[in-house]
Design goal:
Layout: E1 2-5, H1 19-27, E2 31-35, H2 46-51, E3 55-57, H3 59-65, E4 68-70, H4 77-81, E5 88-91, H5 99-107, E6 111-114, H6 129-148, E7 156-158, E8 161-163, E9 167-171, H7 175-186, E10 190-194, H8 201-206, E11 210-211, H9 232-248, E12 251-254, H10 269-273, E13 280-283, E14 300-303, E15 306-310, H11 319-337, H12 351-356, E16 357-360, E17 363-364, H13 367-373
Parallel strand pairs: 1-2, 1-4, 2-3, 4-5, 5-6, 9-10, 9-12, 10-11, 12-13, 13-15
Antiparallel strand pairs: 6-16, 7-8, 14-15, 16-17
Helix pairs in contact: 1-11, 6-7, 6-11
Bound molecules: nicotinamide-adenine-dinucleotide.
Domain Alanine dehydrogenase/pyridine nucleotide transhydrogenase N-terminal: 4-137
InterPro entries: Ala_DH/PNT_CS2 (IPR008143), AlaDH/PNT_N (IPR007886), AlaDH/PNT_NAD(H)-bd (IPR007698), NAD(P)-bd_dom_sf (IPR036291)
Keywords: NAD, NADP, Nucleotide-binding, Oxidoreductase, Translocase
Length: 374
Amino acid sequence: MILAVLKEKAGENRVSLVPEVVKQIVQQQVNVWVEEGAGMQAFYPDEAYRQAGAEIRPRAELLQQADILLSIRHPAAEDWKNASPGKIWMGVYQPLYNATLMQEWADKQFTVFSLDTIPRTTRAQSMDVLSSQANIAGYKAVLLAAYTYSRYFPMLMTAAGSIPPAKVLILGAGVAGLQAIATARRLGAVVEVFDTRPAVKEEVMSLGAKFVEVEGAADASKAGGYAVEQSAEYKQKQEQKIAESTAKADIVITTAQIPGKPAPILISRAMVENMKTGSVIIDLAAATGGNTEVTKNGETILHNGVTVIGNSDLAGTAPADASKLYARNVLNFLKLIIGKEGALDLNFADDLVKGTCITHHGEIVNDRVKQLQT
Ligand code: NAD
């Protein structure tokens, strides 16, 4: 079997496999082909892949001959339109937001695994690309905020007088939010946090931040680790409290997402306009609409003295480690679908294989994507 690592589109610096992981896959008797220069942006040169046992080949050969094609982002139409039926694609294809593309791939008879849909169970943790990448995004969000902010983060007492610590507000204490709290605390900021899941209160407090409670959140215990939409009454209560917190904050980092839906607007235009001049907002939910009313995805804007950075791709700004962790996630998932002597063994009785598979045998087979179509 041939497993191929494609070079990502311009603007994506990560790569699906790193040499250390290639070495382990080759030991499973799988041939690994890597497109020339695929790892360069993440600082993994072709020679390192060669030494790990991979062959460096041109893209056209990969597309024609590989059985499994790895690309973090979905490939360009000219790539997949000419690929032969039966191929397996594996990456982060956001099927809940790309249902039309998934149908086109089903029509092409591709088997598609989208690692962002892996069920959030304990067994899946080592394969959870959303977590491994969100962790980096949370860390980088704080560094970006600190770099952009025109003042210090920590409290400083100097001969020229003292500087108060920055006040950081974090909306959403999932994987990215928790890492953002830890990083902001390490830099000496005072941190306040909102989340609709009261279960995270303890974790937030153990990181030294204050958890702002809003009563009456919708029960998300059956949503597989994800958030659910909130009632109008809850949203109103939350809005009041967030308005009080944003008015005091120097930095706001927003991470709230609801799978398959636009991100909830938690910060209105009026709230941004009521923030202190020089404040900074980093919106990690920008790609699905953003958590503020003024966010522009992929852009940095200055709104009434507040810098608003809409960026959901911050993991890509640490491409070496982001790729390393992503590659380990891929390796752990491959172990579920590659059997003895490197042969493909798709076992759809396994909930992780089933939950991650989007299309197979000409159909959309993923329950969450199918629900969107009804
Ligand atoms: P996410 O990216 O979907 O959302 C980020 C956070 O925003 C979540 O904590 C969510 O509750 C919060 N949020 C959503 N709407 C909000 C609103 N209106 N106001 C305030 N906050 C809001 O979440 P995530 O980081 O991917 O993970 C969510 C949970 O799933 C975490 O508890 C995480 O530990 C768990 N998880 C489990 C596994 C596993 O067991 N395999 C893997 C990953 C995550």
